[in-house]
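Practice problem: predict the structure.
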Amino acid sequence: MKANTHGYFTAVGRRKTATARVRMKAGSGLITVNSSESLQYFKKKILQMDLEQPLDITGNTGKFDIFVNVRGGGLSGQAGAVRLGISRALVTMDENLKRSLRAAGMLTRDSRQKERKKYGLAKARKRYQFSKR
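Answer:
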């Protein structure tokens, strides 16, 4: 139990170039992302499921109000960052949840980044069309 003076459990999650700062406290199950409801911020169903996955695994769906500030990257990277942040916040709240979250892969930071573009190539690995004549 490491709640701050206002009763929030905080954590940071990252994926690709996205960074999510998560604050969580006991409540009715409202998830707010960048001052808007999560269903409006992440319109795709798969991204919404991504956010709720740690809560479903631990059986805490609807028990916490979660406030997220997320910056950088695209929607997919942001959803992954939020998922990691929520998982880490759950672990700061209750250390016993760590085993189930770890087994589901929720606490592992996905370190894959976009490969840099090389000179003489169109993209990281794509080449320009070869012409013999």
